[in-house]
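README: folding subset

This subset contains proteins for which both the sequence and a predicted structure token string are available. Records are stored as plain text. Below is the entry for Calcineurin-like phosphoesterase domain-containing protein (322 residues), shown exactly as it appears on disk.
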Amino acid sequence: MGRGRPVDWMKDGVQLQLESLGEAHVEYGHLDFPKLKLSVVGGRPFSLGGDKLFRKKLLKARYGVQNMEESAQKIHMAAIGTPEDHSIIFLSHNGPTGLGSSVDDMCGKDWEGGGDNGDPDLEQAISLLKETSTYSIPLVVFGHMHKEMVDRGSRKMVFVASDNTMYLNGTIVPRVKPLDLGGSLRVFTVVDLRDGRITKVVETWVSVVGDNISLKEEHVLFCSSVKGSERLSNPKSRSTRFLGICWWCSLIWVSWKSRVEGIGGRRWWLAGNRVRKGQSGMEMVVGLGIEGGAGIGEGDGDWAGNQGRRGNQGRRGSLRRR
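--- output ---
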């Protein structure tokens, strides 16, 4: 539903949002990028965490899921439906169980009772895939559990398991902050993925004032060197290859940007797939550009898509609305 298109008031809000996502809707499904040899696999939508299904009637009606076991099986089936030579990134509204039960752990409850608020079906699906296949899983990314906790402390946002799978929580709220003199400050979590391994994770704040988009602040959450891995607090550095992730808490959605070298002698930027709310309702825009060449495809009006349609200093590509 983009600008200029009428709103179908006979459809419910969830259906309209899913249609806006188009092929980027990966709940219990997957989206493949053959040239990147990468697939994004979606987990369970509408999760509130814990061992109980939230919105059971909706999950049964839309996805045929009635319990955690069926949900885990559905996530696993989506994963094994991807090409065997692809790496898999799991994208889910909430993270898996098993990441700790302390209040400041990635999915730890920072409210009365405490404990692990992760999704057991996601943990089960990932564990089963690792046990029964040779897929590489460099990243599991999710949201729901806010970085700023109830007591005003900050929770852990990155964890690297012994098998080198990174678990990343990208939920920074608010994601968009108004600036005093107009415009907004927007946050993205940016992941540098090289040769199938994550080398850097950066919390990135971008200023958007009219058509002027600029990088304002970066906080490095993880950095890995050739000699080994190290965690850094706040060094001032920039990542050159990106996979940027953010999402809207009522739905699973992804905004990614990845540069891959050696495709036709050019460097490609893949940017976009995000939903934003405009005056006419929901719209999705996608950006894809080639460094040193013409930007092609659709462009996101925000930072990631801006890089995409510019083709990273290449000629400006087209900007079309879906």
